[in-house]
Amino acid sequence: LETGDWYSEPLAIHRHLKDGRSLLSGQKFAEHRESQKLEKPYIFFTFVRHPGRRAYSAFIDKIWAQHQYSFPAIQKYLRNTRDLRLADELPAPSVDEIRSAFSAFLDFAADNLADKTPFQSNPHWQAQFRRIFGPVPRDHLSYIGRVETFAQDMTALLQMAGCQLNPEEIVGKRFNEGPPSPFSYDNVVNEVIDRKLKALYRLDYNAFGY
What we know:
- The chain has 210 residues and is mainly α.
- 49% of the residues lie in helices and 4% in strands.
- It has a two-stranded parallel sheet.
- It is globular.
- The chain starts with 12 loop residues before the first helix and ends with a helix.
- The mean pLDDT is 86.
C-alpha cells in the first residue's frame, strides 16, 4: 500500500522485522511516523482467527512439519520429553496419530504459556486477545477483522482508509501458506481436544465471538 510493490520475501517477514530490516516497528516506526508527520486519523487494525484452527495451523506448520520456518528446538524437546512422533517418522499418519500429536502439543502449549518449559512463551500459540490488548499499551484499534472473512473485511478496511487501489487486486493474495495438513481440523478435533482449546483460549472465544 505504501510503495505499490508486494513485499519481496513474504515468508521471511518475521525474520526481517526481528533484524530491523525493510519494515519499521517499535521506536523506528515511531520516529518514521514523527518525521513523516503521520498523525491521526490513521487506521490501526488487526485480524483474528478461530482459536482452535489457529492452534492447529501452528502445530502443523511449526511442530509437525520440518522446514526452514519450523521450530527444530521445540520439535527435539517434544520428541525427547513427550515421545512425540512427527512427520518425518510418520509419512502416512492416521487421523488418530495426528489427533494424539496435536493433543500432546496443546499440553505443551499450556505448559509453555505458563512458563513451565525451557522456551519463552511463543506468539504462535499465545491468546490473540493478550497479543492485541496487553500488556503493552497500544493505540486504539480502529478495526478488527476475521481471517475467515478476510476478503470481505479487508475490502471494508481499505474503503475505511480511503484506499484508491482495486480491493480485488489485494484481497486475493495469499502469502503465508504453510505445509498442508494430513487431515482437516474438523476431522481431527474431538471432545478432549475441544476442551483443551476452550481452556487455553477462553479469552479469544469470548472476546471475538467464536
